[in-house]
Design brief:
By secondary structure, this protein is of the alpha/beta class. Helix content is 49%, strand content 17%. It has three domains: 2-166, Lambda Exonuclease, Chain A, CATH 3.90.320; 180-387, P-loop containing nucleotide triphosphate hydrolases (Rossmann fold, 3-Layer(aba) Sandwich), CATH 3.40.50.300; 394-477, no CATH class. β3 (64-78) and β4 form a beta hairpin.
């Protein structure tokens, strides 16, 4: 029987995701707020409440053995009934939350089913808590489900995921079988090339780090990708990320993967193109009122993904654009989805290192079997300084606040609050601009308050003519 391992979150999201793509702004503080919310609500529980309860459950379904794992936010007992507790942060009002989303309930149901089966219970209580990060209010929803009903839900989830699981298993088997005969794709090694490849191979095998300096023309790209792929075929490596700052170097890496694929190795490789370049629209405004590829995106993405993984191994910009147009989905978001199921991802440094734009959906769950190959690493320190540095320009705050003065006073007031602090700071700077000053204690709090206000405004004013300026300020301030 074939086997596949999957997290509760991933299998439920695949089964139940639906609706429109809406990332005109993507609150980068929301993930951090979510962690804080979990800790806060978990900390309020009394003795007997077990937080971050790990569950692992193996269930056979249609000739596939599913190993499902995850951590429920909490497990507790009330009046003799065992409960699964799930916590979600939100900005929605209780009225907008309604009965909760199926993705959220689905996670709780699956955790409840796993806990019930592992402990041989007949029924489970399920508590879903929504904490509003703006009003600090908590909406609590509870249900009680019996074993039969929870089993029906679990079967429904498995059934929705089954064909996709079968495709992933087949894809993995094709790669493993073809990788067994993976040889160096050229007839001979260049001078120093074999030594370099062996060094990379041994480094990955020992789970170490290596810094390599080699002359131009030695063939560094294939000398690093080939040994990593060789180890992938031996199940020593699960994912490879090839990072480089230059577009031409990305093309070289992708052409290298094309050569390997042409040799019969069924490895899946994706080249990530910048959002601004691959977007089909004149502007990158990801919401249904502006972009047809955002409308009902989550209802269509599973079909697009299935088409991609079933029919292609190399995902160039052209291939991704063709699939995206065929299924009417956002090409950039499709690229990121494909990267989750690719063996090799070729992209810029920032997708791995920049905390604001990194591929969190992929990197957040990587194992020790992930290999990162950094091309021209001597350029990384300067890029890293840019990624982890920030500057605030007072004139930008003034320009954004002025047109909002009369119609959006709350936004205007929050922005002007930052302007006031920057004005006071400017008076402390020497005329030659060389004075080093400490960060005012009030600035981080004021910035957090302002980004929360802008967060709300951006969500409610997608078509506003000042949306882009506010969005730019939002990310500058975060």
């Amino acid at each position: 029987m074939d086997k596949i391992s999957i997290s509760v979150r991933k299998i439920v999201e695949y089964a139940y995701r639906s609706g429109h793509l809406d990332i005109t702004y993507r609150s980068t503080t929301r993930a951090l707020e979510g962690i804080d919310v979990h800790k806060k609500l978990q900390g309020l529980e009394g003795q007997g409440y077990e937080k971050e309860y790990y569950l692992s459950f193996i269930v056979p379904y249609k000739e596939i053995q599913f190993e499902i794992t995850g951590r429920a936010d909490g497990v507790f007992t009330l009046d003799g009934l065992h409960y699964i507790d799930e916590i979600k942060s939100t900005t929605l009002s209780p009225e907008d939350i309604g009965d909760g989303g199926m993705v959220h309930w689905g996670q709780a149901y699956l955790y409840a089913y796993m806990f019930l089966c592992l402990n041989d219970f007949d029924e489970m209580g399920i508590r879903l808590r929504y904490y509003n990060v703006e009003t600090k209010e908590t909406t609590v929803l509870t249900q009680t489900k019996g074993k039969i009903e929870l089993e029906q839900i679990a079967v429904e989830i498995l059934d929705k995921y089954h064909d996709w699981a079968r495709l992933l298993i087949q894809s993995d088997l094709l790669f493993v079988d073809s990788a067994k005969v993976l040889d160096f794709p050229y007839s001979t090694y260049r001078k120093g090339q074999r030594k370099m490849a062996v060094s990379v191979y041994e480094t990955i095998k020992k789970k170490k780090r290596i810094f390599l300096q080699a002359p131009t023309g030695i063939g560094k790209t294939i000398s690093t990708l080939y040994p990593a792929l060789k180890l992938m075929g031996q199940d020593e490596v699960e994912k490879i990320y090839y990072l480089t700052a230059r577009s031409s170097a990305k093309e070289v890496a992708f052409d290298t993967m094309r050569i390997i694929t042409d040799k019969g190795v069924r490895v899946k490789s994706v080249l990530i193109t910048a959002k601004e370049k691959i977007c089909f629209m004149e502007e990158c405004q990801c919401h249904k009122d502006y972009c047809q590829y955002a409308e009902n995106y989550f209802d269509k993405i599973n079909g697009a993904l299935f088409d991609a993984i079933q029919n292609y191994d190399l995902f160039s910009r052209d291939i991704i654009e063709n699939i995206a147009r065929k299924h009417q989905v956002c090409p950039f978001e499709l690229t990121l989805e494909i990267s989750l199921y690719s063996d090799v991802t070729i992209c810029d440094y920032n997708y791995f290192y920049d905390p604001r734009v990194s591929l969190r959906r992929g990197f957040g769950e990587e194992s020790v079997k992930t290999v990162v190959l950094v091309d021209e690493a001597h350029n990384l320190p300067d890029r890293a300084r840019e990624m982890y540095s920030a500057d605030l320009v007072r004139s930008e705050f003034l320009e954004v606040s002025r047109p909002l003065k009369d119609s959006w006073k709350k936004v205007y007031k929050s922005i002007r609050g930052i302007n006031k602090i920057l004005l006071e700071l400017s008076k402390e700077v020497d005329t030659d601009g060389t004075t080093v000053i400490e960060l005012p204690e009030s600035l981080p709090h004021k910035l957090r308050t302002m980004t929360n206000v802008l967060d709300e405004w951006l969500g409610k004013n997608k078509g506003n003519k000042h949306h882009k300026e506010v969005l730019d300020l939002y990310f500058r301030a975060w």
